[in-house]
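pasting for the record
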Amino acid sequence: MYHNEREVGRSILEFISSKANTQGLKREDIHFTSKLASNTSYDAARKSIKQSVKQCGLGYIDLFLLHSPYGGKAKRLECWKAVEDAIDDWEVKTGGVSNFGVKHVSARTARVKPRIYPAVNQIEVHPFNTRTEITSFCQDHNITVEAYAPLARASRMKHPTITSLSKKYSCTAAQLMIRWSLQHDFVPLPKSITKEHIIANGDVGGFEIDTEDMKVMDGLDEYLVTDLGSS
């Protein structure tokens, strides 16, 4: 999907065997995700999964996602069957979807019921785009919400409410927004190229946003879409 599976897989294996791996992490301790670029056919999806597994060199993929609902219901079901078969063949451990809305992920709208239901829906979610309908649906149906762009791509870091609450909780704006995501039981996926920011983004266990402030942050929703691929 991202044409970097070979490089990422090689980096993971090199780290595992290096002196930098002071915790003695093994392959099974690393969670590797990849995606299907487009929903075209069962055969194309099956081929893509096999190529991803081969290129990453990790033996299997922990989570494989259908990147979007595009292509129509029939194509989605075809490609999802390819994911199911990859799970049966031990090429993929867990299957999921990305950018799916309620009508896409609801089994009630499918003519053919999947053998394996998606475990994850990866969507853009942050205080300025709370996606309440789909996140509630997913959580009610035991589908984990992975929140990409949980920092709204840094477009609201200086928002007065974010600034005020960051000061109140003695944290960065990014930490506040990540903590909001965690307290909604999402799995946030913050991105950064700065080592200090990466470390800070993981250091969010030392505080908890109180109920009233969570409601205030929920109220910031403006359906801000920072990624045109989300739906």
